Amino acid sequence: MKFKFESDLEYQLDAINSVVSLFDGQNTKNLSFPHVVEVNPKVISENKILENLRSIQKENNIKEGAELQGMDFSIEMETGTGKTYVYLRTILELNKKYGFKKFIIMVPSVAVREGVLKTLNITKEHFKQLYGNISYNFYQYDSAKLSKIREFSRSNTLEIMVMTLDSINKDTNIIKKHNDRLSGQKPIDMICRTNPILILDEPQNMESEKSKDSLKELNPLFKLRYSATHKNYYNLVYRLTPVDAYNKGLVKKIEVLSVIKDEDFNTDYIKCLDITVDKNKLKAQLEVNKKQKSGYVVKTVTVKHGDDLEKKSKNPNYQNFIVSGIDARSNQVKFSNGLIIKKGQNVGGDKEQIMKMQIRHTIEEHFRKQDILKPYGIKVLSLFFIDKVANYVEKEGFIRKTFIEEFNNVKRGFENYNDLDVTEVHKGYFSAYKSESGMESDKEAFDLIMKDKEKLLSFEEPTQFIFSHSALREGWDNPNVFNICTLNETVSELKKRQEIGRGVRLPVNQDGDRIYNLDFNILTVVANESYSDYVSKLQQEYFDEYGNLVDSPKPLNARDRTVLKLKKQFKLNPEFEELWKRISRKTNYAVKIDTKKLVEECVSEINSLNINSIRIKVEKIELSLNDDGIKTLFIGEESEESNNNFEIPNLIELIANETKLTRNTIYEILAKVDNFNLIFKNPQEYIHSVSLIILEKLKEFLVNGINYVEIEDFWQMELFKNVEAYNDYIIPDKNDKCIYDGIICDSDGEKNYAQVLEDNDLVKMFIKLPNWFFVETPIGKYNPDWAIVFDERDLTGASKEKLYLVRETKFVENLENLRPLEKYKIKCANEHFKTLGIDFKTVNDINKIK
């Protein structure tokens, strides 16, 4: 199989265009020194970049900064939404529009590096098709292959080098030493002369002063910082928050399956929560069973050296538990009876039993989901996070033994998996396990998990269960991870967001197609803590990151699911039979565009453009020398309009490529505008502005000129299946008006509307149209909400006519405020249903039915 990439995802294009627009007005000429070095062109003035930045931030609803924070720019994209694809395509756009050629992708670890190199490999064909067979080179920095440094500095083509931070952050690194193979030069000096553009992947891991100094040594033209969890923001350009991704259906939904023990105060349960230093004294926070007037409760107590836990808890179960030592370096507490407990570890809480249950439930979830998803061509993967490597890699390790036992037990209840061999279905990847014993095929496991994603997603590859620890924290994810089991023996370094980030990406099928709008696009987290605790910790992470600006998406309770069943003989229901007969017919569409009118309207809007001249700025800066080097003091500036003659590019070809219109049509438009002279003020801005005007007008004309024709094909009743849903999203069908025994609703507004339909005597039946029922439009598929059978009656109560209605519900104050894309799709749907003779309307009031 091959991964397929979509080039027209709106949010990705927004992220790309936001960065590219930072440099509007940029000179496109490279500086080159023959046979020596090819240099990225200098960027426009900081004042112009700040002006562009403020405009972009305003458009993206980001608080504008008072001043430019250096030449660093932050792009925030939630895990699983294609961050690597976005920055690779941004590189190609920056090259195409401005001629930038030297790029270094800086990564914090080998795991991230492998993920980036993998993406570079599998996107090469896609990008060549997208960018006219563009020529570019990519490779990882290798201190044993310094000829690549020479190639990077001298090549006249687009060069992309991937480096780990470790390769440049020590003075002993080869890159910082004089080298005979480079005519005595330091490799880093050859790089820095090119003024490379740095792409920082996961920059929150590069925030130490040492890391900042190392990055500065590369003499970057500017830095683009991409992450889902920035530590600091520098000139924030674009933000796709977890809530944005969740609400737009760009990631899987999340559910939590918690495995916990009911309160048991009969044991000497202890959990070490934290170890701190307070006024030069070491203290530990322990969770214990404490006796109070109302009985025993789980409470947190703070202890220091010499404290008697029996007295602190007033619980005799802790006799002889006297703190004999606290070690902050090894993060452990020692008691007089010989017990040693590490931070995050617990004793006396049936830990192994809980882990066993977690493993069992994960395997059951795995088999259940695989049964559901196999018909869609989707292979299910399950990921286990553990902290103690020996528990899996050792032959007698508890997790390995338990997994084998539980797998062989659980598979007996799933007839499709009885023949599976447990030795073939699981593998582990641990970055440090070469020092451990028991893992014989480590290279095979590494290649499969870290490099061969396509092979791992194939049904022909038996591996389905992956065991790892924080080595897979960043730089690795897989679209088909549907279950994550957290078997944490000690405190995990992973945050909740990082844990779920390994599995939130939308899945792909055996053809490499991304699968959207699937009811079972759900990531199940099998956790060893209560559902409410897990949710509160995840919400706290969102709050710490975003404050009160957004509401965090609430994970669903895995135990609160039910199966909605189709009613027997539902196909024979005369109301449904007639409704389906009318609405299930399919159509094809054709678009007729009045080219003459399109040209006229484009010309009219282009004539209102105002393009500012490029100005020459003179800055006066005072330089002074001190022990720290050169200090600068800004004195003042002057500017005047440039009178240079710009080299005008082939604007007809450029605009045609942007808009996908013919060159003749673009020529017709430009030949009729009366402000064509503006191109001499700022060619790039003029081309960009004209292209945007034409694209918006074209969308409008596509929709207005659409014509649907009924065809022989139709949606089959057999596509209706029993569906699984969450009780929070269901209202019961008490009046027998639906084909299921309940109605699934996606929001409170839909629940209210469904209840009105359920309670209205004139509504004979209704259905929430499934995701697979859609209308094709030139701008994407459209799935309407409701199909309704309505009974018109006269004043005697006698039935006059049955109405067959399709309704879209949009719970906004004014339907005119819908996003243009939504309005365009609804307009197309209106034409489709008009062709079928179906009454279709969009309503924003729950009482509007007829």
In a few lines, what is going on in this structure?
The chain is an alpha/beta fold. Helix content is 31%, strand content 25%.
3D architecture notes:
The chain is an alpha/beta fold and 850 residues long. The protein folds into five domains: 10-240, Rossmann fold (3-Layer(aba) Sandwich), CATH 3.40.50; 270-347, no CATH class; 351-559, Rossmann fold, CATH 3.40.50.300; 570-588 and 711-843, 3-Layer(aba) Sandwich (Trna Endonuclease, Chain: A, domain 1), CATH 3.40.1350; 593-704, no CATH class. 31% of the residues lie in helices and 25% in strands. It is built from 23 helices and 35 strands. The strands form ten sheets. The chain has a seven-stranded parallel β-sheet, sandwiched between helices. It is globular and about 95 Å long. Residues 432-441 and 617-633 have low confidence and may be disordered.
Largest sheet: number of strands, sense, barrel closure: 7 strands, parallel
Strand content: 15-25%
Q: Note the gap between the termini.
A: 49 Å
- Tell me, what is the CATH class of the largest domain? Alpha Beta
Which descriptor suits the 3D outline?
Answer: globular
Structural class: alpha/beta
How many structural units, i.e. domains?
5
Architecture per CATH nomenclature, i.e. the level-2 architecture of the largest domain: 3-Layer(aba) Sandwich
CATH T-level fold name of the largest domain: Rossmann fold
Low-confidence stretches: 432-441, 617-633
Q: Count helical runs.
A: 23
Radius of gyration: 31 Å
Protein name: Type III restriction-modification system restriction subunit
Keywords: Hydrolase
GO molecular function, one term: nucleic acid conformation isomerase activity
EC number: 3.1.21.5
